[in-house]
Design brief:
Layout lengths: L10 E5 L4 H12 L3 E6 L5 H8 L9 E5 L5 H8 L4 E4 L17 H18 L3 E5 L25 H6 L3 H20 L3 E6 L1 E3 L9 H10 L13 E3 H13 L5 E5 L2 E2 L2 H11 L19 E2 L3 H5 L7 H15 L4
Parallel strand pairs: 1-2, 1-4, 2-3, 4-5, 5-6, 6-9, 7-8
Antiparallel strand pairs: 10-11
Helix pairs in contact: 1-8, 3-4, 4-6, 9-11
Length: 328
């Protein structure tokens, strides 16, 4: 996808702007001439704000920072006010959680999403792009074994609750709540479902997906059976958000992965590219019932997104981890 499209003085509100994906979205929006209302959790924490303030375009008053709490509607409303569009990235992001006491994970994910959409509706926002996940697509044990999983496939929430896969529960319920709100309130909503997002790091901390790669390079043998569907470069994820915002014909869900692959495929490619690390060998299929597929994100490809290859994703990710000091 070429970065030829430019904003005409529009303002986009990005929630979760300080994070791995959010900071890339902010950077690319500023590059394209947009103004950005960027939300963070704590305006007093330089780890959330300094990397945003240092971006090209931020010094021109096109970047405004807001502190929000997903359960505090008024704080969200202040950030959304005056925005032509909203890209809602913020969500609890703990994939190895084994419990969810008192809805600690579910409430911000579900109620927070509804709060953002309500603020967008009341503000007259023309479109909202919601960041969901492949965790709202898998695990889905009831899906036909001979059919490639895509936008029509939904995570089995009861299965996830029984197996305490709370992150998948949170992403699935949050996305369903978004679609319900959009239908009831006639709000223009589109959804992106990224896979395992890695690549160059902008914030001073790393996200869960990059932590998975660090652990793999350190010899971790976890297979992430219920959390892996395929890799995607963080820049492609950011571009996909902007593409969905800018394309009036975009609708529905959008799978966002370079390929549908097993975690063992990814690990084998890491081992091939970086033999100096002790990468564990995995069984051929680490994701039972997942059919491999090339170019599965057809909706995004048809809109002009050219996905970065798995090999380049790994190289960019590992080199960034080295540069930032997370691995030697």
């Amino acid at each position: 996808m070429e970065d030829s499209s430019r904003s005409t003085g529009q303002t986009v509100c990005v929630t979760g702007a300080s994070g791995f994906i959010g900071s890339w979205i902010v950077r690319l929006l500023l590059d394209r001439g947009y103004s950005v209302n960027a939300s963070v959790q704590n305006l007093q924490d330089p780890r959330e704000t300094d990397h945003l303030k240092s971006m090209d375009g931020a010094e021109s008053s096109r970047l405004r920072l807001f502190q929000i709490d997903l359960l505090d509607y008024d704080s969200i409303s202040r950030a959304v006010r005056g925005a032509d569009g909203v890209i809602h990235v913020a969500s609890p992001n703990i994939i190895d959680r084994v419990s969810d006491p008192e809805g600690e994970l579910l409430r911000p994910a579900v109620e927070g999403t509804v709060n953002v959409l309500r603020a967008a509706k009341e503000n007259g926002t023309r479109r909202v792009v919601v960041t969901s996940s492949i965790s709202a697509i898998i695990p889905s044990p009831g899906w036909p074994a001979d059919v490639v999983k895509g936008e029509e496939c939904w995570t089995d929430v009861d299965f996830c609750k029984d197996n305490e896969i709370w992150y998948s529960v949170s992403k699935t319920l949050a996305e369903r709540a978004a679609w319900e709100f959009a239908k009831e309130n006639r709000l223009d909503v589109v959804v992106l479902n990224p896979g395992t997002v890695t690549g160059p790091i902008i914030p001073p901390t790393i996200n869960a997906s990059m932590s998975v790669l660090v652990r793999l390079l350190q010899g971790c043998t976890d297979e992430y059976e219920h959390f892996y569907m395929g890799p995607v470069h963080v820049k492609d994820v950011a571009l996909a958000h902007i593409l969905l915002y800018e394309n009036p014909s975009a609708s529905g869900r959008h799978l966002c992965v370079e390929s549908i692959a097993h975690y063992s495929d990814f690990a084998a490619k890491v081992a091939e590219l970086y033999p100096e690390y002790k990468i564990p060998r995995f069984p051929k299929d680490t994701q039972p019932g997942l059919l491999r597929a090339q170019n599965p994100s057809k909706k995004l490809i048809d809109m002009g997104l050219n996905f970065i290859s798995m090999e380049q994703i790994i190289k960019d990710s590992v080199e960034s981890l080295k540069e930032k000091g997370y691995i030697s």
